[in-house]
Structure formats: C-alpha cells, structure tokens
C-alpha cells in the first residue's frame, strides 16, 4: 500500500483527489490536510509515502513547505497555475498536476509513484554491488544491473533519470536501473553526445526533437516526452544548440 496524504485549502479539490484515491486499490489515504501545518504534523507522526500538495495555500505555500522538509515523501504538486511547473521540478517533485485533474492523468502519476517506490525498496539489494563501477567505450558503456554488467549502446539511450543513488537509463524498448550517482555516470559519458540539463536528467543530444521554453522534447515510445531544463544548465545547453542552428 502507498500511504498517501492530500494537502489543499480547497474542499472541492480535496474531495476530487479523495474520490480518485478510493478507486485505486494500492493507495491508502492517511489524511486530508487543509494547510501545510496540518500536513507537517501528519508527516512527523506517521509514515507517508506520497503527498499531493497544492502550491497556493495560506500561511505557507506548497513550494515553501517542501523546501522546509528534511526528508520529504514523494511529492506531486497540484495547482491551477502552470507557471509553477519548472520550480516544482527543480525541487525534485515527482509530478505536477494541473487542475482540473483528470482520472487518466492521476493514474499516470500514481503508476510513476509506484515505480519510484519499488526502486527505493530495491536500493538496499543493489547497494552491495555499487563498487562494480562503470566501463566506458567509444560507442557503448557497461553498467551494473541485476548483479551483472549490461552493455548499453549510446545510440539507444533517450535520456537518463536520476533517483538519488541510482539512475534509470531510458530507451525505447527497455530501461536499465543501475546503482550510480548522476555525477559518476555523467563523468563517464562522452560530452559531445550527452548533456546534463537538470539535476535529475541527462539527455542524449541526438534525441532532442525540440526545445520549448524551459523544456526539452524527446520522443519516447512514440509520444513526446518533456524534460525540464534547470536554470544552472540552460546556458550551456543553448550554447550547444546555437552552434548547430542554421
């Protein structure tokens, strides 16, 4: 069960999310909170895996509340204002749901949360093998996964997503989870092919389809995937892109 709380000062928004949660068997609603202080009390007294957090609330905004937490659960921001999306990703939020929230979009987020929590639970099993290291070559790299070294061709990689002490290498036909930091993997990858664009993302430059605002577009499984560009990485990315402009 994924122990979940909702934090929102709007009763209707609380009702909608509670209705959605009741329809997903793997979710367990622990508390409905109308402000950050109520939520903080719940977090200090109970184990919480997932928090749906409104951004605009009285006393303390959702963004400021998340910044105050030392060990937050997985956080999904909910808001009616899309301009907060980039800041939400900068804080390592799992997702960003724009109100009104559809059931389809809600389920997509829940599935991602479930995947992330499974990875966290698997971390203890992976950690003893962390010293196996990485071995890089001109066109591919070997990474540790499932107690073996697996070859990953650079041409197959779409992007890499960081999750604390391990990363997910995303490809069209598969994904590989390896116990490494983003920094160690970034140092091994060829700089002319891969670029760090966010504290949680490295993108294959050959897979970038477009740049829209503070987002990079890649095609994953036939659909457009938007990756956030952190403000500390934007200038270097744009310099690379400008060198290739007509």
How does the SSE layout of this entry go?
Blueprint: E1 2-7, H1 11-22, E2 27-33, H2 36-45, E3 50-54, H3 62-68, E4 74-79, H4 85-90, E5 95-98, H5 103-126, E6 135-136, E7 140-145, E8 148-153, E9 157-163, E10 166-171, E11 175-178, H6 182-188, E12 194-198, E13 201-204, E14 210-212, E15 215-220, E16 223-228, H7 234-242
Parallel strand pairs: 1-2, 1-3, 3-4, 4-5
Antiparallel strand pairs: 6-7, 7-8, 9-10, 9-13, 10-11, 12-13, 14-15, 15-16
Plain-language structure description:
The protein has 246 residues and is of the alpha/beta class. The protein folds into two domains: 2-121, Response regulator (Rossmann fold, 3-Layer(aba) Sandwich); 133-242, OB fold (Dihydrolipoamide Acetyltransferase, E2P) (Beta Barrel), CATH 2.40.50. 30% of the residues lie in helices and 34% in strands. It has helices at 11-22, 36-45, 62-68, 85-90, 103-126, 182-188, 234-242; strands at 2-7, 27-33, 50-54, 74-79, 95-98, 135-136, 140-145, 148-153, 157-163, 166-171, 175-178, 194-198, 201-204, 210-212, 215-220, 223-228. Strands 2-1-3-4-5 form a five-stranded parallel beta sheet. Strand 15 (215-220) and strand 16 form a beta hairpin. It is globular and about 55 Å long. It starts with a strand and ends with a helix. Mean pLDDT is 87; it is low at 124-133.
